[in-house]
Amino acid sequence: VIVVVSALGGITDKLINTSQMAANGDSAYEKEYREIVNRHIEMVYTVIPAGNERTVLLDKVNELLSELKDIFQGIYLIKDLSSKTSATIVSYGERLSSIIVASLIKGAVWYDSRNFIKTEKKHAKHILDSELTTRLVKETFQKLPEVALVPGFISTDSGEVTNLGRGGSDYTASVIAAALNADSLEIWTDVDGFMTADPRVISTAYTINELSYVEAMELCNFGAKVVYPPTIYPVCHKNIPILIKNTFNPQGEGTIIKQEVNSGSKAIKGISSINDTSLITVTGLGMVGVIGVNFRIFKALAQNGISVFMVSQASSENSTSIGVRNQDAALACEVLNEEFSKEIEMGEISPVVAEMNLATIAIVGENMKHTPGIAGKLFGTLGRNGISVIACAQGASETNISFVVESKSLRKSLNVIHDSFFLSEYQVLNLFICGTGTVGGSLIEQIRCQQQKLMQERGLKLKVVGIADGHHALFTRAGVDLSHYKEELAEKGMPSSTQVLHDEIIGMNIFNSVFVDCTASAEVASLYKDFLMNNISVVAA
Ligand code: ASP
Ligand code: MG
């Protein structure tokens, strides 16, 4: 067994944070540093029993921590933080955690990954030198002890400390597994595995037990922070299965990723999403039929280290849209405007601008291959819910359909897609009830009495997500507790008005929603049109 460890939870962030504080001349960095110290010392006291071993370990830990202290102090004095120093600092996270775990596991032998995980510099980024690393890993582990312990994440490039990027410990493990033809690669993390969708948004999302390498690659690309994306490739290449397990729920089945999977009957395996998208469009009549426009777009972006995660070009060749992260948008526009400055001046191409704050969603699964109707179902579902698709892309591999929507529609899109592709046990209807007099009050009481029965017998979940009377209005995605709605309305409600109803209900942008008007007010009725325009159904008493 070779155990690869990452830093103690949260420590890498803390190391980065502390060094930035020191570089900014903020003396409070010392407090942050002390917390790092305490965290490690406490860990040693918690997991290693008192005795000689603990003393020896504490000496080593303290030595590393005092080196770290000197480095932070240096930064604080000089107020300069180079990327080289930064990489050295974050390496302490893994160096510390690995010696603690090495002493915790009886007979474990500690190996210094700086000696065999090697990077090279490309486009101002350190990337794995995979040939050299594979050779060195093979040499290092020619004779394997029963348990070998390796700090993940860290690497070197001709003596300089580098790393494999945030989340890089998974990658370290994968590279070692591939070099040594391991039987399997296990990633022990803090979630149950890959989920059908982001569980923070979709409460009915569930763990996917089997995924092919391709599907896992598609799903981990963004959103799902289950494994660091580069992890998949080295082992996939060698056909070594990856098992993802939850350290906090070892009984859970987890997710297994391998070549051949039982693909099941569902059309898609999962939905990935990211709320951090800008769309940059290069467009102009002067582009049609001109060869090399896309070449120049991608060359300019690549030379500036901008990663593109979605591309869409219409067959008219009239425009190319590119999805990048919000933080890259300004630079991307700048370099494209420069690249095409001549054409822009001539009016052949329009000045490049970014549409910011969008969201990208992708449905993923190998079953989509050669299956007609998936895109139809996807866009039909979105259309019926009034969600407009700004751009979309499907590669010929047919394992992923990606599309871009406004950020505010992300939650709703995920809900309706999850509902339509993963038959949930029940259908949800989100109700807004306006008026709590005789009619409204009776309706609420009827719903309260029948909620359970409707769910069990009809698979229909009626959720009252908004209630308003003449004075107050209360909105909650989780649903109002109907046994106490009067008290809640009075205590937590906001002052009610037609404007409030209009803005809140449309602003919530919730899926499968129905506005039930139990008033006799012409003013309330005047809201119907806007509700209907926003795909909110209307019921009038
Ligand atoms: N400790 C590193 C990080 O937080 C590497 C890892 O956790 O995989 O990014
Ligand atoms: Mg990690």
The hetero compounds bound to this protein are: aspartic acid, magnesium ion
Q: Strand percentage, roughly? A: 15-25%
Q: Percent of residues in helical segments?
A: 40-55%
Shape: globular
Instruction: Evaluate the radius of gyration.
Output: 28 Å
Q: How confident overall, as mean pLDDT? A: 92
Count of helical regions: 18
Low-confidence region ranges: none
According to DSSP, the number of beta strands is 23
Q: How many strands, which pairing sense, and closed or not: the largest β-sheet?
A: 6 strands, antiparallel
Across the major sheet, the strand order is 13-14-12-15-17-16
Distance between the termini: 68 Å
The structural class is: alpha/beta
Architecture overview:
The chain is an alpha/beta fold. Helix content is 41%, strand content 23%. The protein is built from 18 helices and 23 strands. The strands form six sheets. It has a six-stranded antiparallel beta sheet with strand order 13-14-12-15-17-16. A six-stranded mixed beta sheet has the order 21-20-19-18-22-23, with helices on both faces. The protein is globular and about 80 Å long. The model has no long low-confidence stretch (mean pLDDT 92). The structure holds aspartic acid and magnesium ion (MG).
What keyword list fits this structure?
binds aspartic acid, six-stranded mixed beta sheet, 23% strand, single chain, binds magnesium ion, 541 residues
Give a nutshell description of this structure.
With 541 residues, this protein is α/β, with parallel strands linked by helices. Helix content is 41%, strand content 23%.
